[in-house]
Every structure is written in structure tokens, then in C-alpha cells.
Amino acid sequence: MIDDFQFCYTTSVKxxxxxxxxEEKNLVVKKSRNGLGIFTRRKxxxxxxxxxxxxxxVTCDKDDxxxxxxxxxxxxxxxxxxxSPQGRIGxxxxxxxxxxxxxxxRNKKLFIVALCPIPRGAEVVFDYSTILASDDIWKMNCNxxxxxxxxxxxxxxxxxxxxxxxxxxxDMVPSYILYL
Length: 180
Ligand SMILES: [Zn+2]
Fold this sequence. Notes:
- The longest helix has 9 residues, at 161-169.
- It contains 4 helices and 14 strands.
- The chain is α+β, with helices and mostly antiparallel strands.
- It starts with a strand and ends with a helix.
């Protein structure tokens, strides 16, 4: 549905981006603590869907020929596939060790869902570890500014056991991440 998309160029968003009308209505991409981030234009209720993660399926194997930034922005989808937003809004979703959103897989699609009520003007953030399975070697240094900051972000099963339990109890970890 090409009509569903609008091209958006701003001084801060350098590459060509494609946002859906609903996304542009509810969200804005602007400068955050670390690069660009997604901010709300309206209040979201707990459990409300914020946006759908769309893009291309990739494997993140060497033959994908993805540059590091594209690789960094992928979302684990199942055992073999990752979703690479490639200019869509999912490229701008930042990590926080104190998240207000989570990734939920529903009807074979990935959604970003509010973990708690999110006020208008807040940055939407989720914990990257919740979509890193035991075979994901990707990691990054964190500068999210939270008092709970873990400094290094790695796969889910590297988290302290208590945090794993908390995240599982809040349905923040897609089931395929736990099985892989
Ligand atoms: Zn952090």
C-alpha cells in the first residue's frame, strides 16, 4: 500500500524515511540523548500498540551484506529471520535499561506496545535484550542515563536472573527469544 506511506525529509533525519500516516500523526522522530529517537505526540495507555515494526526480512548472516548500522537496527523475528526497518520508523527506536515499551509478536507481526502509560512528549524506548536470543552475539555499550543502566547490553539470558523473571512476568520477552 504505497499510498499509506509519506516521504519525510527533515534536517535531523538525513536518510530517506518512509513513515505511515498513523505514525506521523502519533509520533515524531527527533534528537534524543543518543542520536535520534521516537517521541510521542499524544498519550498512550498501558498495553496500547504504538506502531508495527515493518521492513525487510534479513538473516543477519554474512551474505546479507548489511552495514553495521543496518545490522544494529534489526529486530529478531524468529529462529532465522530478523526485520530490518531500512528507513521505516523502527530504525529510530532506542534502547533504555528503564523501558516504557516492549516488543510483542501477534499474528506473525511485531508490534511496539506501551508497557505503562506514556505521556505526550516522552521518548519511546524498549530494552534491546528482550529480543536478543541465546545465539545472538550482538552487544553494545549503553549510555541511557537510567539509574538501572547495565552499561553493556547483551542477550536476554545474560541478564540478572531477577530481571529476567521480572521481564518475563511483564510479557516483555517474545516466546521465541526464550526458546532459541
Ligand atoms: Zn542503559
